[in-house]
Amino acid sequence: MIQRAVEEPEIDFSDLGLSPEMLEALRRIRYITPSPIQAAVIPEALDGSDIIGQAKTGTGKTAAFGIPLIEMLEERGKGPQALILAPTRELAQQIVAEMDNLAANRDVAICAVYGGQPIEKQLRALQRGVDIVVGTPGRVIDHIRRGTLYLGDVVHVVLDEADRMLDIGFRPDIEKILRRVPDPHQTLLLSATIEPEIRRLADKYMFEPVEMLLSKDEPSAETVNQFYVTVDQDKKTELLVHLLQREQPEQCLVFTRTKRGADKLADRIRRVVKGVAVIHGDLPQTSRDKVMKAFRTGEIPVLVATDVVGRGIDVDGISHVVNYDIPEDPENYVHRIGRTGRMGRNGVAYLFVTPDQGDPLTNIEMLMNRTIPPLDLGDYEAHNASVKAEQKRGAFKELFSYL
Question: What CATH homologous superfamily does 2-213 map to?
Answer without folding.
Answer: P-loop containing nucleotide triphosphate hydrolases (3.40.50.300)
